[in-house]
Structure formats: C-alpha cells, structure tokens
Amino acid sequence: IALDTQPNGGGRMQEKQYTPCLLNFFIYNPTFGPREGEEEKKILFYHPSEVEKNEKIRNVGLCEAIVQFTRTFCPTKPAKSLHTQKNRQFFFEPEENFWIVMVVRNPMIEKPNKDGKPPTIEYQEEEILDTVYGAVVRQCYSMYKLFNGPFGRAMETGGVELLMQKLEKFFYRYLQTLHLQSCDLLDVFGGISFFPLDKMTYLKIQSFVNRVEESLSLIKYTAFLYNDQLIWSGLEQDDMRTLYKYLTTSLFPRHSEPEVRSNLLSVNFLSCFVLRFLTGPANLKDPEAKFRFPKIFVASEDGYEELHLIVYKAMSAAACFMINASVEVTREFCEQLDGLVGPQLTLLASDICEQFTINRRTSGPEKEPQFKFIYFNHMNLAEKSTIHMRKTASVCLTSVHPDLMKILGDINCDFARVDEDEEIIVKAMTDYWVVGKKSDQRELYVILNQKNANLIEVNEEVKRLCATQFNNIFFLD
Amino acid sequence: MAEEHYLELSENPVQFEHASSVNNVFFDEANKQVFAVRSGGATGVVVKGPDDKSSVAFRMDDKGEVKCIKFSIGNKILAVQRTSKSVDFINFIPDYPHTEFTQECKTRNASILGFCWTSWNEIVFITDQGVEFYQVFPDKRNLKLLKSQSINVNWYQYCPETAVILLSTTVQGNVLQPLAFKNGNVSKMSKFEIELPVIPKPAKLSLSERDVAMATIYGQLYVMYLKHHSRTANSPGAEVVLYHLPREGPCKKSHVLKLNTTGKFALNIVDNLVVVHHQSSQTSLIFDIRLKEPDCSVNTQQPVLPARSIHPYRIPLSGSAVVPSQPPVPCQLYSSSWSVFQPDIIISASEGYLWYLQVKLPPTVKLLQDKGKLMDFLLRRRDCKMVILSVCSQILEGSEKAELPVVATVFDKLNQVYKDYLEAEQSYAAAVESGPSRGAATQKRPVRTQAVIDQSDMYTHVLSSFSERKGVSHKFIIAVLMEYIRSLNQYQITVQHYLYELVIKTLVQHNHFYMLHQFLQYHVLNDSKPLACLLLSLEGTYPPAHQLSLDMLKRLSTANDEIVEVLLSKQQVLGALRFIRSVGAHDNVSARKFLDAARQTGDQMLFYTVFRSFQQRNQRLRGSPAFNPGTF
Questions:
Q1: If I label B352, which of A109, B125, B298, B485 is the partner at 20 to 30 A Cα–Cα?
Q2: For residue B202, with 0-12 CB atoms within 10 Å meaning exposed, 13-18 middle and 19 or more buried, which class applies?
Q3: CB pairs under 8 A between A and B
Q4: What's this protein's family per the entry (chain A) (predicted)?
Q5: Do A202 and B522 touch (CB under 8 A)?
Q6: Rounded to whole angstroms, how far apart are CA atoms B274 and B498?
C-alpha cells in the first residue's frame, strides 16, 4: 500500500494521509458460469489472488447485479462506476460479455485520538475522479490487447484455459506498475507528446524510414521517437497511443535508469553513443544471444495482425521496427538491420540534436516556463504539459498540488458534457487561478499564480499565452 | 546491339559533286561550306552550305589550279588562292565591281600556307614566315595591311568560333603560338609547348597538324593533341591531351583522355563531348571532360561509355527521284576517304557527302549503369529533357526500378540544376528591377536549357502517371513523392501545390489519413488556400481534416472570410463572431450572413445574441442600433 505521510501543521497530533490504492482488479464473463454452483467459472482473473473463493464470487456477483440493474434505466449505457464511502468501483466491458472491474480505495485521513482510542478514519469520497480511473481501466485493457490481442483471440486458440493463463501472466506484472496515486488528467487524455522539428529534418527522417523499409522489406511499420517524443508513426493512431504509452512509461525508463543513476560523466558520455536493441538480444556478438522480440497486436483491415517489435536506439533517437510475426527474426536480419540503421540513425540523432539546440537558442534562453499548462488535441492526440516532470519508470511527478490537478480534472468533466466551445475560470485556494479552454477538439488548462489578480487580468494573461504558444493553430479566444 | 549506337550521322547530309580529276572539293570550316570547283572554276563552282541560303553557284575564270577558296563571313567576298605568293578576291556584294583583284603577301620570299577570314572584310594570310592581317575594301578593290607578325610557321590551325589561329613553330613544331583576332586587332596569347612522346635526334618536325585540333568545349577553348602510343614508353595506348587556352593567362594541360588502344584516330566535338574515332576497330569513344575524377591535377579520364560504332548509315540513291525497288546502299563508315573537321563535321569527298555527327542519348541510358553518373552526363547534353524524364520514369517503374537512395540522388541532381537556374533568373530579375543604370545591361537573361527540369515537367511526364500505375506499391509511391519533396526543400525550391495534391490523393486513396495528418502536423505540406479547401473536402471521410483545414487558414492570415464561412456552415455562429472580433474585422462584416446562420439553427437565444451584438456594433459605429440598408 502506498503510504504518503505528511506532517500536518505543527500540532501534537499527527494526521496520516493515505492516497488512493488498488483494492481489487478482476475480469469475468457472466456467460461462462450461468448456472448456480458454477459461479467460479465466470472468474477469469482476480487480484489479489489470495482472496477467498466465496468472497471473489460474491464480489463478482455484486458487480454483475449492479450492471444488470442499471441497464434497466439505460440499456445502451450500463453503469461505469459505483461510489461508496470506502471505495469506488469501475466497470468496463471491452468485448462482449467480458467485464473488467477495478476497485480503488478512496483516499483517507487517519486522525489519532487521545487516550489510546483507535484513530478516526475520514474517507475522502469526492477526491477521486471517475474519468481518471475509468481511463486507467481502459488503458489496462489496451495494454493487454497490444501484447496479447483481444480476449476473443485467446478464446479461439486455446479456450478459457489459455485466456486465464494469459490474463494471469500479463496482469500479475502489469498491476504492480499501476501507480494509482499519481494518475491524473493526462491519463484521461492518453496523449502523445510530439517532438517539435523543422521541416527539413522531418523530411530526412521520412527518407530514412522509407529507405530502411525498402531495403529491409520484412519491416511493415516503423515509428520514430526522439527524447521520448514521437516524430513519426507508421501505425494507426490508436495503436500508436498504446505503444507510445508502453515505450515511454515502461521500456525507455527501464533502459535509461542506469545512466541517470550514474554520476560518472564518462559513463554517460559513452552510453550516449551506444547503439543497441532495446528489445531482443542485449549483445549481437554474443553467440548465445536469443533473437526473440516481444510480439504486439495492432489493428489491420481484417481484424488485427501480430508483429515482432524491434526497438533500436542510437543516442536519443529510437526507431521501432515492426515485422510480421509469422516471419522468424534471425541473427542475420538483426546484423543487417544493425549495419544499415546504426550509422544512419546516429547521424540523424545528431542532426536532430543540433536542430533542437539551434531552436532553443533562437527562442531565447531556457527559462522556467512562466505558465503551467496542459494542452491536448483530441484529433491527433497531441499533448503538451509544463506541469509534469519527466516520467520515470515508477512515478509521474507533477509540479503542482494535487488539489489543483483535481480542479483540472473537474473542468475536463464539464467540458466532456457539452459539445460547445467553452471557457471556465476558477479561483482556487491560495493565489491560484485555473483556466480551462475548449475550442473545437482542443483543450487547454492553465494554472496561474498571481497575487491579487482579477478575472480580467487572468483572461489577458491566458490570451497572451495563446498568442505565443498556439499562434499557428485555430484556437478561438 | 542496334540500340547501342550512340553516335549517328545527320539524316540530311549536304550533298555535293564528289571529288574527281575535273572536280576539286574544298571545305571552309568558318562558313561550313563545301566548294566543288570544276576545271578551276571555268565550268562552275558550286558552294553548298549547311542551309540553302548559304549555297551559291557561280563561274570564274580558270587562272590556274585553285589551292584554297573561301567566302568571307556572309558570302560577301570570295578569296581564292592559286599561287603561293598571292590571293585573289572577287566581290559578291551586289552593285560592286565584280572584277578580280589580287593581294600579294608582303613578306619577301615567304610563301602563303593559307588564309582565314575573321570577319566579312578582314582576312589573315598565314605564311611560312609569319601572319599578315588585312582589311579588304571591296569598293576600292584593294587591301590594307592592319598588322603583321613575323614568326617561323610550320603549319597552322584555325578556330572560327573564337577567331584564334594556332601556329606551329620551332624546328620540332611542338611550340604552339595562338593568336586571337578581334576587330582589327591581333593579340598574342601565351605560347606553350606540347610534350612529344619521343624527342627526335637530330631535331626535325615531329608534331603533325593532323594530330592537333582546336575546339570550344563548354565555352572554353581547348587544343586537343592526339598523342600516339610510343613503343619506348610503357603507356598502354594513345591519349588525347587537352590544353586549356584561357583568354588571358597561361595555357595549361588540363585533361588526358585515355584511348586504351593504338592506331589511326580522328577527333570531333559534339554537344561538348570529345569524340574519338578509331579507324581500325571502326568504333568511336566519347569523353565528357566535366565528369570529374578529382584525384589528380591533370584530369585523367576514361571513356564515358564503351566503344561503339556510328549508327549504320544508308545512302539514299539518286536523291529526290527515289526508285522504290532500289534499296538504299549501306555507307561505308570510318572509310579512309573520310575527312573529319571541327567541331562535328565528317566529309566523304569521294562520295560527295557532308554529315554532321550527332549524339543519340537514348542508347546511353542502357550503357551507363550508374544512374548518378548517367544524370550528370545527360544534364549536360543539349536535347536531354525527354531522355532524362524517361530515365526518371524508368527508375520508378518496371524491371529497372531503382532503390530509393538512387532515386534520391537522381532527384537531387535534377534539382541542383533547377535551383541554379531559378537563382540566375532571380538575380537577373533583381538586376532588371534595380534599373538599367546598375548591372542590368551587363547581366544577360539566363538561358533555360533543356536540363532545367522543373516540377511541372516531373509532374506531367513522370509523377502523375507513376502514381496511378497499377501494381506499384503505394508505399513506394509515397516514398518517392516524399523524396522529391525532400529534395526540393533541400534546394529551397518552393514546392508546387499539385505535388501536395498528388501526395494527399495517394494517401487518401489508401486510407492513410493518419500519415497525412502527421505530414500536415509537421508542415511538410505547405499552407495554401487550395490545400486548405482540399482538406475541407476530405472532412466527410476523415473528420480531423476540418481542424487541419481551419488551422491552415488561420496560419495563412489572409483567409479570414473563409474561416467565417467554414464556421457558419458548421452552425458555429458564436465561434464565427468571436473569431471575426478577435481579428478586428467585426466593424465591416456583413450582419446578414451571421443572422441567417443563427436563424437556421432554430435557437432563438442564439439569434437574439447575434442580433444584439450587431445592434451594439451599429450603435458604436453610427450612434444608432439600426442597420444600414446598404451594408446589411
């Protein structure tokens, strides 16, 4: 359980604050055990696994009942979440009759009592947002689907047994990486951060991708990233969104951490120039090396297709090559790829780096951005945040108080309710102003900290931000 | 094999009466005229030039054997040399006296080796003791000596294009003195010595005039020396050594063309290519001196293409009155009766033909495998456009399809030339604009050669048909289009709208909307109103195109009306109103459009809001909320 203790004020009493955490996560299919006494068959996955069987059956049954019951009010939109004092449950039916349920314990404050009485617990029922955790559940499914294909696929090839095996294998590890306490608006968006680049360098990257795909015709799709930001995706948007999430929150941080930790300059210097496969063999020269790459599933014209995922990195540039999974990736192929891609990618990476520093220099000295904002475009999933620090494998740090993040989430919910363009300005506690703007498919959230500012000044300030940061898009004032 | 002959004789040769005991044939390199002199002129002189205008026939008195006969430029005055001491002149200007007049050479005991016209009335006598430069006065029927130069001469060569006479001097003959003639002036260019393969002992004339020729290649004057293989040296074959003769400054040995064989050779220059004919093998070689082998100071070059013979030629029988049953007779190529003249003339005196040698480009495509080198070669040829375009098509389609890096190289080479032309054009336009006082007169309008292959050429002849070709993977089509756009961008050439349209069409056809989206996101496809409209039309199949289009219109900053139209058509009346206010055009916008759109929504509140907004505007502008009938 994630524990977050905050000394509150200077009083004698020590309050303990508990962030939201995962209580249960289960997947079931009511059609698998419709008869009484066979209820256990419905359960395909249950976390934590050590929960007693009857309790599992009871919990699943309850969810089933709630979903059934709420259907009577709105047959097309069954319940999405259930709010209770202690926890909140999220329901999601990704494929017909397959339900994923996540139970999150509400954040709470433990107040010690005098005279050895047990502490009082206050649950903060309203502190968590449906949109954020609903998105987390959907993300769980997308990630499973990326690496395993839809549930239906496992059912077709190996029946329930195979599906249960796959779910166990995937979610056992995946749930450990969920950090529910740091989920926020960005999880709702599930956006992609794009690397800003001049046209010529972009065309060079295009040229590189096309040439590699031509000479290594096994490669079906390519994605190109720099500094953990996307530059080119040959995959369709939805698949790229999930793959991007995997790359930036799991694969890249896993490989960059040793460098970050190392304080030795020379080590860092060397590691910058190392070319390597982030998936597959660690060392091509190793005679024992195994040429196995993770397989991913992406949408295709006739359902989905299975691909090998080869991620190759040179300096800060990473290229993902996807190859039809029915083909065996051999040592020869990897060597060929290494020989062809290595030099070109290194050259491109230094080109991009050069361009990047030129741009930074021309746009003035690097200063702490005056504005804290989050931008998201539903059309291309482009997201930009000056609120979030660099993501690491374990946590995603924000530079603002969770209360402000909650306000952002609330505004987002308001936006979701209507189609019209809107603007919402909120005066938060302390000196903060929070501004939300929605124009067509774009959303912008700004946090301003200006003492004694009034509404008009805040509005002017946001206008100025739009004029400097977003002058090349159609964004209504 | 038949398609591999990259040299051919011109289809319509100049025909003349072949040389015989009664008919002497002369050729004048300056006017490119063939003189057929029958019986010393008494039974007629027939002059055939490259076109009918320059063809003349006349009679003159037989005053002895004609040694040399040439018209001055423009056929004004005829000069005839019959003795080694003098030259006779006949006026061909109407209304001038036609009687001959004679000029003897001034230098005593000198004998005239020949003469050259340098203008319509200036002539140079070359004698064994020097040169004499005269001006002819046809009305007075006399000549005036302008300049003379004393020097021992073995033989001479004349390059009419540059009016440069090259004199062979010294005992061995290998010290060459070029003289340039211009407007009555003679200027001595720097003298140079040709290295002989063997130095004879005792000294004797060792450099033959047959082995030396002058020609302009890529606008520069060169002396070409055919250096025969010597048994003593270990050179594998004969060479052509090129000496560059700049207008000013010293002459420099610039290129060595390796012939890799021995025997009898003859030289031509065609389309700035050096053509070397080899008689015993009946083949020819071509060299392009601009194809650089950058290693050594003296550029040693191998032939561009493998040796091939000139395309077989058939002589049509009896000229115009062709008898159908009689097939044309094959002409014997590389015949020993051939004479070769600069730059591109081959004459068969015994058969009575003058041909121009021509380069056929299509066969070179097959013979030159390296496409980059092929492009370099083709881009420097005169009639190259269609061949280059066909090479472009060829590398994109069919069995000869090239790989992307090759395609990229070809595009880059084309665009380099295209860019150079655009820049020249631009600086010319700038010079014209800055007024006639400064530079405009000195700067010539750049000539657009065939090698300038612009986007519309590429689109019409290559890309549009290629992109519609069945059986070509769309991935390759898109890659090629992007490569072309990349190349244009690399040379900072503005990409034309129709290329973007082609990219979009191809992407849309294959449902690659996300790719299109990414291209637009990185502004790879430049903003323009037509492009924005095209995107707008895609909204039905790809909704995000709406946003992309609006963004583009916004960036154009000249399309505010279009933005309002788009928003109103989407019933985003308030949005449209807010937009028009933000760009400060609220005051002079027509209220009717907005009110119409508001009414169509059926939202009364909205209509009221819009109406009030315009009333307030009217109040502010005119002091009354009422609408002006005219502006409304």
A1: B125
A2: exposed
A3: 86
A4: Belongs to the CCZ1 family.
A5: yes
A6: 41
